[in-house]
Design a protein that fits this description.
Region (Disordered): 297-324
Structural class: alpha+beta
Strand content: 15-25%
Helix content: 25-40%
Low-confidence stretches: 298-324
Biased composition (Gly residues): 298-314
Largest sheet: 5 strands, antiparallel
Number of helices: 8
Distance between the termini: 5 Å
Order of helices and strands: EEEEEHHHHEEEEHEEEEEHEHH
Number of strands: 15
Mean pLDDT: 81
Oligomer: single chain
Number of domains: 2
Length: 324
């Protein structure tokens, strides 16, 4: 199937936290240098594509888990590969490759879309994810949105207390009152310098994008199979319904309103849930081989395919994998 691209915006429905450098009790946003139209290099807070990709991957894993019903049946290495991408561990066994690797891609859309590391190899996924770039004056030539809002004033510092007992009956008077305000100072290149006034050790600050901040981003599936398109379309639907981005979502940060549209209309008539349910045993066998490649042991015979059942030729590929 031809490459599919989505472009659009994410709008902060609650403040966005995306931790970069930490200075004392202040966590700053991640920043990178941006060359402005006049040639100056300015530090601009930008959300990494890895953060957005990670959120989409976790949504995909939850969809696949519900459809296949593998909870409690996978080795931790396989579960982590599906949920977080896994890790490449040294192994003395032959890496997962060739027909076994192709079979894994065809059966498990989560792997086909997002890729993973494990089984002695790195599996590349079809999905490319763009960085999440805020609409500020310094990025106007990137986003195509002209605004006078500067990266120097586009963020805020939020203060939190873990537990402040200074007013408690059994602690009042132990320490005197302190002024614990904080503010951000910037040099000419946009590098932030947080300044904290006071010494309350229970107070920390977090730099965030305020509610209402708009970001541009893009997603691209490179030559996906129809099964992968159908699966990823549901992942995007889940992200649109419950959009989250960045860190500290457990305390209210990171809610986003999603407006991502494909360049061209998508027509896919495949029920990916029905497909993975029909191939549940094959998928679990794939993870058994993955574990054997990762941790040793006999991988056993080749992965069972549709042809290993009555009525098919050995090695038949699922029709979803053939493309259109």
């Amino acid at each position: 199937m031809r490459t599919v691209t989505w472009t659009g915006t994410l709008t902060a429905a609650s403040s966005i936290a995306h931790g970069g450098e930490t200075r004392g009790t202040i966590t700053l946003l991640r920043r990178e240098l941006v060359a402005t139209p006049d040639g100056a290099l300015v530090h601009v807070p930008i959300v990494s594509g890895n953060t957005l990709r990670g959120r989409l991957r976790r949504l995909g894993e939850e969809l696949l888990r519900d459809a296949v019903g593998y909870e409690g049946l996978l080795h931790p290495a396989a579960a982590h590969a599906l949920r977080g991408g896994g890790s490449l561990a040294k192994t003395s066994h032959e890496p997962l490759s060739g027909s076994r690797l192709q079979r894994l891609r065809e059966l498990v859309p989560q792997i086909g879309v997002f890729g993973a590391a494990g089984g002695g190899t790195i599996i590349n996924g079809a999905l490319d994810v763009g960085k999440v770039v805020p609409h500020v004056h310094e990025t106007r030539h990137i986003t195509g949105v002209d605004t006078q809002r500067s990266a120097f004033t586009a963020t805020q510092l939020e203060g939190y207390t873990r537990q402040d007992d200074t007013g408690g009956h059994d602690f009042a008077g132990v320490i005197g009152g302190v002024n614990s305000d904080a503010q951000m100072l910037f040099d000419d290149a946009g590098r932030p310098t947080p300044v904290v006034r006071g010494g309350n050790q229970m107070l920390f600050h977090l730099e965030t994008f305020p509610v209402g901040t708009v970001f541009s981003t893009w997603l691209r599936l490179r030559r996906p199979s129809p099964l992968e398109v159908a699966f990823f379309r549901d992942v995007l639907t889940g992200f649109t319904v419950d959009g989250r981005l960045g860190g500290r979502v457990g305390i209210g940060h990171g809610m986003v309103m999603v407006d991502l549209q494909p360049y061209a209309a998508l027509t896919v008539d495949i029920d990916w849930r029905e497909f993975v349910a029909d191939h549940r045993d094959d998928i679990l066998d794939c993870w058994r081989v993955w574990h054997d490649r990762e941790h040793g042991g006999d991988a056993g015979p080749g992965l069972p395919g549709r042809g290993d059942r009555a009525g098919g030729a050995v090695g038949d590929r699922p029709r979803w994998a053939a493309g259109v």
